[in-house]
Amino acid sequence: MKKTRPIFFSLFFLIGLASCQSQSKILKENPGIFLDPHTPVQRMTSFKRILRLQPGTHQYEQGRIDYLMDRLSHSSYDFIRNGISYNGVRAAKHLKMKMLRHYEKGESAEYFVDHIANGSRQSGKKYLVRIDDKALYSTQTLLHNELQLLDAELKKYVEKLSWENQEPWSRPYGDLTRRQERVENSPVSLTAQNSKNLKGIPDSADHKAN
After folding, report:
1. d(C-alpha 64, C-alpha 162), whole Å
2. pLDDT averaged per 10 residues in sequence order, the chain, 210 residues
3. For residue 4, with 0-12 CB atoms within 10 Å meaning exposed, 13-18 middle and 19 or more buried, which class applies?
């Protein structure tokens, strides 16, 4: 009995070590994975709400968090909390309840991801996302990916809006053809062209004199 006990604990230790190594192989940190890859960001209602908010305010950061919850609830992936799998709607509901207890007004969306949506406070286990049967991802990582995607789309939208509000001749074209169009359609070029076209037309006074 004394001989078998060390063997039993050694075997138990090896199994636990193998499971940890297997978990580390499954858990991936891929920056190209998003919660909802099928829905365009700019079509989401939460994105349109952020456009009406002032960056740097607590309302703006709350809008970014609401966007994350929107993306989470629309996700078709499985979300694992303390070993139990939930759908996106239930995962978002849990994080909203957790936010009411632990989130302080004025903190950034990044703070929310790193300190509230990262894992369980009771067990210390990370929240995970199962993309398929073999790949697990950290929910924290995917939420950060979503924030980067959101900020990029917001910047793209603002640049497009700024472009549309510019006068045509002041827009910085990137290619030679469009740059040539800018020159030809500029007020100076049009004035010169009109003067050139008018050279062959006699003055009205001279025309009457003749």
Report:
1. 22
2. 48 40 49 83 93 94 97 94 96 95 91 96 94 85 94 91 66 48 51 51 48
3. exposed
- In the structure encoding, which two tokens stand for residue 174, read together? 């990137």
Distance CA(121)–CA(129), nearest Å, equals 18
| Residue whose entry in the numeric block shows the structure tokens 């369980």 | 120
**DSSP secondary structure, 86-110, as one string:** E-HHHHHHHHHHHHHHHPPTT--HH
What is the model's pLDDT at position 161? Answer: 83
- Within a domain: 149: yes
Is the Cα dihedral 43, 44, 49, 55 positive or negative? negative
Tell whether 195 is covered by a domain. Answer: no
CB 79 within 8 A of CB 91: yes
Task: Look up the domain containing 67 and give its range.
Answer: 26-167
Domain tally, the chain: 1
Tokens of residue 11, six digits: 């075997």
pTM (two decimals): 0.67
